[in-house]
Design a protein that fits this description.
- It is a multi-pass membrane protein.
- Its main location: mitochondrion.
- Belongs to the UbiA prenyltransferase family.
- It contains 24 helices and two strands.
- The protein has about 525 residues and is mainly α.
- It has three domains: about 90 residues, no CATH class; about 200 residues, Tetracycline Repressor, domain 2 (Orthogonal Bundle), CATH 1.10.357.140; about 140 residues, Up-down Bundle (Four Helix Bundle (Hemerythrin (Met), subunit A)).
């Protein structure tokens, strides 16, 4: 009996005698493919190649040869469709990997799949789209909150020093400069000099000796130089003692393992002598060039940082609050240094300088620096919390991460009333309220993200860099909007002459002389005996 040829589609004919009964039934039950043209030829090619690559293990040469079925794309598609109905739970990825590379399967357009694989077909070797790749890399980076912190000045100076000859003068100078922590010491000097410049003195750098008698070394320029030098040397001494007391702990942290004493670039004895020399000279300079109150504050701050804060880091997380006090004292030193210039004889004691009528500005500056250190340090410690833990330092970042975020947010919000207090105390103009509010909103926003995400998703990095830029912007803003600094410009803009102001002052003096307005009306009257 002769079986007729089956015309399945145009250009394809199969001999029915070569088929088994099961496959013959399947083939004749399927309608012929209808030729249709899609809008995209590329999509048709990709779909055809994909269907050809998901053949299960049963469609191998052993099965096909047993029934004598030619391995055309139509027969493969028929059997695959039936297998899909029977095993819908099978994973597509498993079916894809189950295809052996030796199968000589052709696509519906007669193109060998192995050839497509060699030529990098999108179906067999898919390439990740650029935007998908960027999203994946960003997600991986944000998932891993650890990121490399740039080495500070001490680390860079230690690296430079180690590369120089041992007898080189540059090596010695670089090593001792690394002990001072230049970045931190510069920040301390910046806050002290900013508070000094904010004190309400009409002519900051050229006081008129006729207004108030001043000692020989208390002119504004010399006071500024003594304040800068003494503050830097005192900070250098405290930082050197800090490195001297914990080299074994610094060696366990990536951030501090390149410090001079850890790398043995100099002996502990030399570091101790350097700390004693810089501390003594710095305190003497402040005593001679400013006033004894500033020198006493500097000595107290040195003791608090080196002998209280440093050992407390391995005892309790309260060390962060002690360190914040250390950071808040330098602005108070600068304010009191300026206050001492205008203090009269008999009103220049430490009580008058610290708690006098002009002291609120200095305490507000100290409070701002105290509050600023929590968002700055808490975000920094979060990124290296595991290193702090391994080094034995008790930090909130790893002991209580939730509280670490709350503290950072709390003190970031506290910056708003503190900055407004500077305007209330008459230190800055109203313009500072606008600029200070904008900068504080940025810091508070990043602190909120840091608290909400517990440092994940890049929130710790965002808060750290916001705090880095926040402080200099705030300090510069206070100097620009200092009370009275723009009065001359304001008068020129609105056409108010200096002569009019002098006439008003002259009339006021005449009224006082005539007795209409007592000259000392603000002072309490003495009782008549």
């Amino acid at each position: 009996m002769a079986f007729p040829l089956l015309m399945l589609r145009t250009g394809v004919a199969l001999d029915a005698a070569a088929l088994c009964s099961r496959c013959f039934t399947l083939l004749i039950s399927q309608p012929a493919d209808v030729s249709r043209r899609g809008f995209s030829t590329t999509r048709v090619l990709q779909n055809a190649e994909y269907r050809a690559t998901i053949l299960p293990k049963v469609l191998q040469q052993a099965y096909l040869s047993s029934c004598g079925l030619p391995r055309s794309s139509l027969s493969q598609r028929v059997v695959v469709q039936r297998l899909r109905k029977e095993s819908q739970h099978t994973d597509r990825s498993a079916l894809f990997h189950s295809v052996p590379p030796s199968i000589d399967t052709q696509s519906s357009f007669g193109t060998p799949i192995e050839a497509n694989r060699k030529h990098g077909s999108p179906a067999t070797s898919p390439k990740e789209l650029p935007h998908r790749r960027r999203q994946r890399l960003k997600a991986e980076q944000e998932a891993n909150s650890k990121y490399e912190i740039r080495p500070d000045a001490s680390t860079r100076l230690s690296t430079i020093s180690s590369s120089l000859p041992k007898t080189s003068l540059r090596r010695t100078m670089a090593t001792f400069l690394a002990l001072t922590k230049p970045n931190l010491s510069f920040l301390v000097v910046l806050t002290a000099t900013t508070a000094y410049g904010l004190y309400p003195i009409p002519t900051l750098l050229a006081l008129d000796p006729s207004v108030t008698p001043l000692p020989a070394l208390s002119t504004s320029t010399l006071t500024f130089l003594y304040l800068t030098t003494g503050t830097f040397l005192s900070s250098a001494s405290a930082n050197t003692l800090n490195m001297l007391f914990e080299p074994q702990h610094d060696a366990r942290m990536t951030r501090t393992r390149n410090r001079p004493l850890v790398r043995k670039l100099l002996s502990p004895k030399a570091a101790l002598l350097f700390a004693a020399l810089t501390g003594t000279v710095g305190i003497i300079a402040l005593y001679m060039g400013t006033n004894p109150t500033v020198a006493a504050l500097s000595a107290f701050n040195l003791f608090l940082y080196a002998f209280v804060y440093t050992p407390l880091k391995r005892i309790s997380p309260i060390n962060t609050w002690v360190g914040a006090i250390v950071g808040g004292i330098p602005p108070l030193m600068g304010w009191i240094a300026a206050t001492g210039q205008t203090a009269t004889t008999g009103h220049d004691t430490w009580r008058d300088l610290l708690f006098g009528p002009d002291s609120p500005g200095g305490w507000l500056m100290a409070a701002i620096l105290f509050a600023w250190q929590f968002p700055h340090f808490n975000s920094l410690s979060h990124t290296i919390r595991e290193e702090y833990k391994n080094a034995g330092y008790k930090m909130l970042a790893w002991m209580n991460p939730a509280r670490n975020g709350r503290v950072a947010l709390r003190y970031s919000i506290l910056m708003f009333p503190l900055c407004a207090g500077l305007w209330w105390a008459g230190v800055v103009d109203k313009g500072f309220l606008i600029g200070g509010t904008l900068v504080n909103c940025w810091l508070a926003k990043e602190a909120y993200r840091f608290w909400k995400f517990q440092g994940a998703g890049g929130s710790a990095r965002g808060l750290f860099w916001a705090s880095v830029w926040h402080l200099p912007l705030l300090m510069v803003g206070t100097l620009i909007t200092k009370k009275g600094i723009w009065d001359g410009v304001w008068r020129r803009v609105f056409g108010e002459d200096e002569e009019d102001i002098e006439d008003e002052e002259f009339e006021q003096d005449e009224m006082e002389e005539e007795g209409n307005v007592p000259a000392d009306a603000s002072l309490p009257m003495k009782p008549i005996p």
